[in-house]
Amino acid sequence: MEGSQCLPILQHKATLTKLVKDNVFLVVTGETGSGKTTQLPQYLYEAGLWKGGIIGITQPRRVAAITVAQRVSQEMHFTLGKEVGYQVRFDDCTSQATVVKYMTDGCLLREILADPGLSQYSVVILDEAHERSLNTDILLGLLKKTLLQADKGSKDGSVRLRVVVMSATLETDKLSTFLGHCPVFTIPGRTFPVTSRFGNAIGPKEVDSSRYVNEVVRVALEVHVSEVAGDILVFLTGQSEIEKACDMLYEKAESIDYRYDVQDQTVEGLLILPLYGSMPTDQQRQIFQAPPSGIRKCVVATNIAATSLTINGIKYIVDSGFVKQLNHNSRVGMDILEVVPISKSEAQQRAGRAGRTSAGKCFRIYSNEFWEKCMLDYTVPEIQRASLTSVVLTLKCLGVHDVIRFPYLDHPEERLLLEALKQLYQFDAIDRRGQVTQLGRLIMEFPLHPGLTRALLKAAAYGCEDILLPLAAMLSVENIFIRPGTAKQKEADKKQRNMAAQSGGMNDFATLLSVFQWCKASDSPSAWCKENWIHWRALKSAFSIETQLREILLRLQQVKDFPVETFAGNKSELFRRCLCTGYFTNVARRSIGKIFSTMDGHGTAVHVHPSSSLFDQEAELDWVIFHDMMVTSRVYLRTVCPIRYDWVKDLLPKLHEVDAYELSNIAREEVNEEELAKLESKEAKRQKDTAKKLEKRNDETSVGDARARYLQRKLERQHKL
DNA sequence: GAGCACTGC
Predict the structure, then answer these.
(1) Which of A52, A102, A118, A177 could lock A69 by a disulfide, CB 3.0 to 4.6 Å apart?
(2) CA/C1' separation A324–B6 (Å)
(3) Residue A676: which of A689, A661, A691 has the closest Cα?
(4) Is residue A598 one of the residues assigned to a domain?
(5) Which of A187, A220, A236 is the endpoint of a domain?
């Protein structure tokens, strides 16, 4: 490990310290390896800034916050958790003595909710701002808003809180302009040159996955037989592609005569290693081991290798040019995971992975034309492509009433904000004036999706929170069911079907709950998971989340007046009724055959996913609720359970009443009372009409869903062909 | 009849 004595930042110590002291906002840029993350906080500590409050540094990722804090505490000869500490979810390693604090951006956002002025801090450093994480973007806007206001108000000219934004050298002018034309300081980087070359396999017209998988395999092997020693990193988009590419590499590498010389260096063989997020952690660790001498390592990875994990010894990059990206489509109210071309800045980031220890080479399989025509300069920031429901509630809770005119570094489409407002209104988290309700404040306390929190709170009122707490935890972690490629797939599927049947069947929510309970009750939870094809890592985090949710609920029950309700029916019904209060936005009704139609106003034609315990049982179903929709070959509902129309009857009109008045008005500062009254009376009428219509629809035996019929005809035609 | 990248509270 290199000492901090030779870092390029060192010679700028005095200038940097002075700049921070003299300015409310400062932008610091520098490539990886400049030492800004570890050194700047130390300089500010030495300059005595900690006397005015904590020096806080945010990171977009947990591991980064923890490892950097460890390193800095060592460099400063402090015990971790004393003067230097870190805080991430489930792990608070700070104390009264902590003055240099590394944390995730999400943690700081939570702190702002409790203390909007961040009175404990003297400096806040937002690191990795170029990554444009949702939380960092919100923090940027909030700090700009509060500090510029405070600045105007303070008469003595003294500055209490300073903000430093650290970013890679991209878009620094934009940041500076955003922060009132604040100074920008650039630290020279210390990376090695990487030469990039384009290929010709992917042009503007090709987007076929088998094409780029074949091509990266071909190029990786070409690198292997023609380039000097050094490891290869291949970027693809997901698990199945990676497994396919690895299989092809094994096969083809075997047919190569291993002993050949490349410019007088003997490279004997190729060690092929897959790398993706859902891989077990111990398997991931293998990636970091140096290969045996004379063997070249080839890591085939997802974007996880672009920022989250750094592999030493990489000299060659093979870039497919694609990434899987989760985009929220506000037109249909759906999240869609799609393969898209990476941006130019992302391509440079990938290439940079080859220049960390020596000069490197990057082989892009796409053409120059593809680069010019298909790739954006920068990746669209998360705030412009994510669902903003939680973000808007956060802002409202912080007193930002006008979320449309909030200072965003990049403004999200108004439609996205309106959709979020609409959802919050549907959940009764905000009222028709756009003010946060009491329920809204409760919802904010939980690190969960608002609908899920609403269901949990309902359950707490009925005294059955013991069912909803584990379920909420299970629904907030990644997919827990393992589905191996080919060989053992049937065995895994069978286990999972058995588990669904044992938990009562016909209810995917109940299956999740059972898995949680069975695993918790077993003597060896990790062994139980292995036996039942369950991701132990995911279940472990569900356990932690459940504990955290339980603590929050208990705390709130002690201070707030919780409503208490009673219910006479059976337990399964109560469970599903509670779910309905949070999932009434996710209701679908079977229209014809196996086709369902969503009740959210879009009327999307959807199918039950084959992994569901309700699959092939559609004939018995009428109304269902679901946790999420997924778009692949069809639009699928996943995690589904049957409900009765009665349970959602009173809730459904709420889905339509938002059309009754201009939502954009409730987002803005001024509310015209007269207008509002007019709209409200109109709305009451519409609400009645909608309720009637729904009632009528429910009575009809054959549903006149034109869209579903059209799809059915289309499918029939396809089958004939 | 199955196609989930990566983060975070």
Answers:
(1) A102
(2) 9
(3) A661
(4) no
(5) A187
Does A623 reside within a domain?
Answer: yes
> Between vectors from CA A495 to CA A493 and to CA A499, what angle results, nearest 5°?
115
Q: Straight-line distance from CA A105 to C1' B8, in Å? A: 8
In percent, how much of chain A has pLDDT > 70? 87
**Full domain range(s) for residue A368:** 194-380
| Distance from CA(A616) to C1'(B1), angstroms, rounded | 9
Q: Name the more confident of A188 and A60.
A: A60
Whether A631 sits with its Cβ under 7 A from any strand B atom: the answer reads no
What is the Cα–Cα distance from A547 to A466, expressed in whole angstroms?
11
Could you read off the pLDDT of A589-638 as tens digits, one per residue?
999 999 999 998 888 999 999 999 999 999 999 999 999 988 888 899 99
Residue A233 and residue A168 in one domain = no
CA distances from A46 to A5, A25, A34, A53, A650 (A): 16, 20, 19, 14, 62
Residue in A291, A339, A352 with CA at minimum distance from that of residue A130 = A352
User: Nearest residue (Cα to C1') for B7?
Assistant: A61
Q: Is the CB of A448 under 7 A from strand B?
A: yes
Q: What is the pLDDT of residue A32?
A: 76
A308 touches strand B (CB under 7 A): yes
A544 and A630 together in one domain: no
Residues 313-372 of A with CB under 7 A from strand B: 323-326, 337
Q: Within this chain, do residues A224 and A95 fall inside the same structural domain, yes or no? A: no
A28-32, A401-405, A642-646, A696-700: range with lowest mean pLDDT: A696-700
pLDDT tens, position by position, A21-44: 999 999 999 877 788 999 999 999
What total of structural domains would you count in chain A? Answer: 4
Read off the pLDDT of each residue in A407-431 and give the average, rounded to a whole number: 92
Among candidate residues A516, A533, A556, the one where a domain is terminated: A556
A483 closest-nt by C1' vs CA? B2
Same domain, A266 and A203: yes
Predicted local distance difference test score (pLDDT) of residue A491: 87
CA of A392 to C1' of B8 (A): 16
A175 and A209 both lie in a single domain: no
CB-contacted nucleotides of strand B (7 Å): 1-9
